[in-house]
Amino acid sequence: VNEEASEKVLEVEQKYNEIRRPVYVRRNEIIQTISDFWLTA
To answer: Coiled-coil ranges per the record (predicted)?
Structure first.
């Protein structure tokens, strides 16, 4: 039972990671355009 539940959790996590990926890619592109972003954040 636990193994089956773990597999379901992994499936859901992978699904939402795929959904969020474009957001993180876009965020990284924006951050790269800001000079010294990590030095001032």
So the answer is: none
CA quadruple 20, 26, 30, 36: dihedral, nearest 10: 60
**Tokens representing 20?**
């969020």
Q: How many residues does the chain have?
A: 41
CA angle 22, 24, 29 (to 5 degrees): 95
* Biggest CA-to-CA distance, the chain: 51
Give the helix ranges, DSSP H, for the chain.
Answer: 2-32, 37-40
Residue-wise pLDDT for 10-41, tens only, equals 999 999 999 999 999 999 999 999 888 877 65
